[in-house]
């Protein structure tokens, strides 16, 4: 039983890894479950056993991305200005990987409907993102690095919103929007110390 | 010829009006072209003559919404703090009309792909929105109402991003996100005078 369960877990993780590669290269519209199955070395029917819909697979892809981001943060980075620098580095990474940003933006908008396969994922994702940003803004405030008048809670909601909104504008007209520069400008405007 | 053209224009506008009603009530998933056709008093095939896809119809719905917003702005409101107050009032209106906000958010994310029927609409929409915000932030700066260090161009991009991003968070968890309050907080943080 345990062996079968473990094998299933591993197969599931292999499919997610294959999906990340496929979507990173081809974006939302250019990708198919068949292509992912092929890359993972599994039949299309086999893939559907683990992920009955494209949306369910994409939610798992985004969940993996969050877990990797969180893992990295735990290892290296305490809440505060270093975390903001890390988030800017993540934005730089995103600019170089348009496909996965498109998956995130599309799924976030579709999944606002309760009942969507990724709805629960996005509720969790936003809560964790806001909590992480809140911890950082509180640390900055305690260090005197947050501009007076900036409320950490409101800034946390606003910062996550800004990241999401900038991504959609950038995806629409990549030549007109400086995603990283805009994010840096916004974060700097909240601080009393240079973001660097 | 001209009579036929005019009749076609009017029919087209009637369909858009019907679609706005249907989507305002039922949201993105609850609506269908058949329901819109019924409301507009036209056959389904007749509707498809004017709008071959749901996406093309929704782009026209959003275009109408923009035109109405712009018309109102031109009549009453000069760039500056009154325009910001007007935008907050629009956000209050949106909170009471979830369906149309959902249409906007979903279509914006889908339409990042060149070739999507609403792609050109969103390029225009974002350009106009950013220009309007830029004019307002420049006026505020000239009046000494913009906080020193706030760059009007960066603030314009950031403000539109913030609006979009807040909508998606609010649509996902309406009970956890104060859309209007968050927007007000952000705008106030850019100003030296009370937003009121």
TrEMBL record, chains A, B:
Source superkingdom: Bacteria
InterPro entries xrefs: BetI_C, Homeodomain-like_sf, HTH-type_TetR-like_transc_reg, HTH_TetR, Tet_transcr_reg_TetR-rel_C_sf
GO MF entries: DNA binding
Pfam family, one: TetR_N
Signal peptide start-end: none
Keywords: DNA-binding, Repressor, Transcription, Transcription regulation
Coiled coil: none
DNA-binding region boundaries: 32-51
Domain HTH tetR-type: 9-69
Name the record gives this protein: DNA-binding transcriptional repressor AcrR
